[in-house]
Write a structure and sequence with these properties.
Elements (H helix, E strand, L loop, with lengths): L5 E5 L11 H12 L5 E11 L3 E3 L15 H4 L9 H10 L4 E3 L6 H10 L7 E7 L4 H10 L8 E7 L18 H15 L3 H5 L1 H12 L7 H9 L5 E6 L2 E2 L3 E2 L2 E5 L1
Helix pairs in contact: 1-4, 5-9, 6-8
Length: 257
């Protein structure tokens, strides 16, 4: 079986689940050209836990973990089944990880997958973000997941390189702040160079631009898992590059053999 790619997908606003934009069209095109996975393991910005958890649920619920949005968004369902044997296999790969039924597919997962794999016919499970782990640990956990690629598992990390909700310009659909562009470009360069130290120590390395772009780390951390899963043999590409509402980078990254 050919080794599956690794993807870091931006997700931005939950409304992207319903939207038809250049970004969501890029996600759909990406799904069309990928080999069909045996399963999908998602590391989402929206599942934070103490320690690492792995979703172990044969029928995971669609979680609408937001408020103040139209009813149509709350009506979205993504009824993918959960691959229990793969969840158990993943637990063996990640030291101290625990299986849990107490989660489902949050919008960091399904708002991306409704475009990439709209039929929900591929099993999906999730791995949580350990809130007590330093950046280097997130990269290390990613490395533990590498062998899943050989088993037909698509590892999809979902977040945003730049994610500052306090600075959002709601009416500036495709706008961007200078500091957002600066940080996004710096991280792209670090990814291109496989500069692990810069990716992990982004606050120390990139200063004020990093502080504004990553006021809280949960949307940045998934990128570190995806980087950890990738290796030097992979070719890096960017299926989508751009910004939404000034302070959301929609950069999507793929590593493939």
């Amino acid at each position: 079986m050919k080794r599956m790619p690794v993807i870091f997908a931006a997700h931005g606003s939950p409304m992207n689940a319903l939207a038809k934009t250049p970004f969501t069209e890029a996600l759909a095109a990406l799904g069309d050209r990928l080999p069909k996975p045996q399963a999908i393991l998602v590391v989402s910005a929206h599942w934070e836990t103490e320690g690492t958890k792995i979703l172990y649920n044969a029928t995971p619920q669609t979680i609408h973990d937001f408020y103040g949005f139209p009813k149509a968004l709350f009506d979205v369902q993504y009824p993918a089944r959960g691959p229990l044997s793969l969840a158990q296999a993943t637990q063996k790969l990640v030291p101290e990880a625990e299986l849990t039924e107490k989660w489902g597919l949050d919008h960091g997962t399904w708002s991306v997958l409704v475009h990439m794999f709209p039929n929900a016919d591929i099993p999906v499970f999730q791995l949580s973000l350990d809130t007590h782990a330093p950046p280097e640990k997130h990269i290390e956990i990613g490395r533990h997941l590498r062998s899943l690629r050989e088993q037909g598992v698509l590892i999809l990390a979902s977040g945003n390189i730049v994610h500052n909700l306090r600075e959002i310009k709601w009416r500036d659909t495709n706008g961007s702040f200078d500091w957002a562009v600066e940080f996004d470009a710096a991280i792209k360069n670090a990814l291109d160079q496989r500069d692990e130290k810069a990716l992990a120590q982004y606050m120390e390395k990139f200063g004020a631009a990093a502080e504004l772009s990553v006021p809280t780390p949960e949307h940045y951390w998934p990128l570190l898992y995806a980087f950890g899963v990738s290796d030097e043999k992979d070719k890096i590409s960017y299926p989508y590059e751009g910004f939404e509402m000034g302070s959301l980078s929609m950069r999507t990254v793929m590593w493939s053999a």
